[in-house]
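> Could you send the Adenylosuccinate synthetase prediction when you get a chance?

Sure thing. Input:
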Amino acid sequence: MPALVLLGAQWGDEGKGKATDLLGGSVDYVVRYQGGNNAGHTVVVGDQKYALHLLPSGILSPGCTPVIGNGVVVDPAVLLSELSGLNERGVDTSKLLISGNAHLITPYNITVDKVTERFLGKRKIGTTGRGIGPTYADKINRTGIRVQDLFDESILLQKVEAALDFKNQVLAKLYNHRAVVAEQVVEEMLGYADQIKGYVADTTLILNDAIDEGKVVLFEGGQGTLLDVDHGTYPFVTSSNPTAGGACTGAGVGPTKINRVIGILKAYTTRVGAGPFPTELFDEDGEALRTIGGERGVTTGRDRRCGWFDAVIARYATRVNGLTDFFLTKLDVLTGWEQIPVCVAYEIDGKRVEELPHNQSDFHHAKPVYEMLPGWSEDITKAKSFAELPKNAQAYVKALEDMSGAPISAIGVGPGRDETIQINSFLD
Ligand code: GDP
Ligand code: IMO
Ligand code: MG
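Output:
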């Protein structure tokens, strides 16, 4: 089983970090293929808790080579501080590989992210303010700065000047912001160059060779399917493709090389930032999910919006990603509810709709149609097999599997590495 993609099936924060870390011991490479330090991936190993933003979660497994692919946007200051933070905790980060084609988040991209959001006022996206969207915009506009540009001072200056020509006009005239000085940006970026140079490699070549040799390569998505710029709830999305196809473009690996696509699926639903969310709860159940589930953003510290499980979204994730498996996380959080509502369809303008509406306005009006499933009260955090789960928890998982269109191959019953029930191996 050489190549697997592991991605978020909802709006992010499904538990991808834990799932990736769990597999880390059995894989040779873990590759981030999109996004940047907008991600916040929590990994709990024994009594140690790690919050990773830019680095692949496989970095915590000693045998695994972590890779930042060409599709990622890299804030060099964040990269270096995350590396030194891990080094201080005794984690060896020396195997890291970074694509020279990955784009750099510059200080002016962060400025543009923040002023744009301010300008949008109540129509804002609720971005993480890390410069993600403006950096991808520069990439598509062909005015981006790439990791490899750090190693050629005159090219770097030319590219930064070209990017700022236009941007400074906008900053000054539209946003009433002072102009950014190209030389200062270049000086700051060059300050990172020597520390980054040793990690830079032709990651596409290395990964394709690895797959051809039968090594196991895991592509770790950031964010989630509904935050995908093409397939998500546009414009309330991130600016990259977390969906499975993004692994191909964001790492330079063809679709024929990918054998398995695992969707990480929370047993309920959460979302950070603005945008439609049909099963969102504004009552004490929502508050209970937030409290019991610890639903607070790892990156921005914002409370996550919480709601019941939405099978329409899960089916959609199966479709647009070609999912082969689900990893259902946080089942333990639902312990204690007498009955658990699950959204099986939407009602839109009086009509029952089974699939995610293609039209944005329809999705904004979608009302969840709930089916009630019986709950359980037994502690499930120590369960090691499906059979050890209470009957109603088993029935909940089976019902979700039937509605969602792909087998549930693992179940998370707690944040720790070992708090997982494996039903089918991901590596067969
Ligand atoms: P990611 O962005 O998809 O990696 O997810 P986050 O790390 O942002 O959020 C998931 C949270 O749930 C983290 O605090 C994890 O430690 C935690 N978590 C993951 N799986 C489980 C699980 O099965 N049960 C519980 N209770 N917590 C989990
Ligand atoms: P992980 O990998 C949840 C959301 C932001 C905002 C929108 C756009 O931890 O699942 P951006 O800064 O990317 O331009 O913000 O996307 N967002 C996330 N929500 N989990 C994430 O990552 C997210 N990364 C971005 O809240 O609504
Ligand atoms: Mg997260």
